[in-house]
Amino acid sequence: MRNQLPIRLLRAIICFGIALLLVLRLGSPSALAQAGSRTAPESTTSEATVTLDGQPIFQISDAGQYSAQARADLISLQLQAALQMAKPLSVKIEPRNRLPTLLLNDRYLLTVTEQDAQPNSTPDEQAIIWQERLQTKLRQALAERRPAYLQKTIALAIGIILAVAALHLGLRRAQQRGLQSLQQLLHMPTDASKPSRPVEGLSKLLLALVQAGLWIGAALYIANLFPLSRAWSYRVSEALFTSLTSPLMTLGRNAYSVIDLLLLALLLLALFSLAGMATNLLRSRVLHLAGLSRGGQEVIATLTKYSLITIGTLVVLQIWGLDISSLTILASALGVGIGFGLQNIVKDFGSGLVLVFERPIQVGDFVEVGSFKGTVERIGGRSTEIRTMDHVSIILPNSRFLEEEVINWSHRNPISRLHLPVGVAYSSEPEAVKTTLLEAAQSHHEVLSSPPPQVFFTGFGESSLDFDLLVWITQPSHQFILKSDLYFRIFALLRERQIEIPFPQRDLHLRSGTLNLSPQIEALFKQRQP
Predict the structure, then answer these.
(1) Is residue 257 part of a domain?
(2) What confidence score (pLDDT) does residue 392 get?
(3) Structural domain for 346, as ranges
(4) Both 440 and 397 in a single domain?
(5) Do 403 and 420 belong together in one domain?
(6) Residue closest to 92 by CA, chosen among 58, 128, 143
(7) How many domains would you assign to the chain?
(8) Are residues 355 and 434 in the same domain?
(9) pTM score, two decimals?
(10) Helix, strand or coil for residue 91?
């Protein structure tokens, strides 16, 4: 149960982030305007909002020579000034010029016109609705200016800040635990130094978005609690909402805002992560149980991953309303950039596809590339990872496996033959040496009995008789350990049977004769004699 809780919390964070962006996108003014344009004709009358302490009350329209914004600003100023008076406030309705007029403490506030009334309602009905709304807002504004409300609100603000701080730290810890539990569930590497990059990147991005949203929402909520800062909170919220929902770029006939682009990027990241998780599940739960080799499993998993990403991207773009044909210009520009700056990356990616389809090397093969020897651990889109005998990961570009000579000890048939040169003294019996070497080879459990080991007499060296022991093995990656074991066994048997292993020797011959010295050297020797 404890392991499932972080996973559920991580899923909740993902769903919350996607749902938040969807709500913002669907509730944006541009989306509402597009929906309204399909059902109703466009209105030429402008509207403005009457506010009190930053809270919207109602919207009014143009009236004669007065614009809606000018009327709204004048009404908001009158309401704000009335709150400064230390006396009760009342709103009345009085007919003037056959139109209802709202009075604030018997002073003119506004006249409700035909344009102000909502559809299917009269100015008198609209005036009654606005009167009740003004009375409610004015009573609330007076109550919020009392000392008791301010003390209670300050305590609530401090509690909100502490709660958000605790939730901030709790989300970070839950993200780390949920990531580890998710990797264990999907049989992914759980080493902290090498986490799963797609899952880790998506979880960090969602965590940052949720944490930032928490602090911004808390700040706006606290500012909205106080009358003096409520107007600032309203303006910031309106500006933030407008900047996120206003069209930023246009592709084809559709305009996209920041929310649209963020949601599209989030969906693509989720697609990549889901493709990776589905591939890991396919590899660990299906292909592994099917008994396929590591190379076959990797080929099927790689093709499945790229297919899911390609098809999923096209589906997401089509559902999102993006016309694929509108990307032709962008694709042309990318083609030029690929031709000049990304040619090496494209070459490596193309080489990776060739390696996947032709399979000259596979995951699990023991290969030699230049001075590197090791087992192929991963064949990616751009590079291949080789794990050496020292457990060091070597990352090589895919193009190197097609442009240079590569020795693949495991290609098609992993059975390989090893050569072990041995030299003995000239006094040794060749048949006895042959019997000893064969006995040493046959005593090792990793040496195959069919084909059997062989011994060849290769020649006469400067100081030794040279033999070559040939053995067959099925695990090329163990060849270094096997050679060491065989040499240990050969040395012990040769010593036991008193067969000498020589070392390099040189003979120095001095011929006798007369040594003639120059007169100067003879004089020097005579001076040094006592």
Answers:
(1) no
(2) 87
(3) 324-408
(4) no
(5) no
(6) 128
(7) 3
(8) no
(9) 0.44
(10) strand
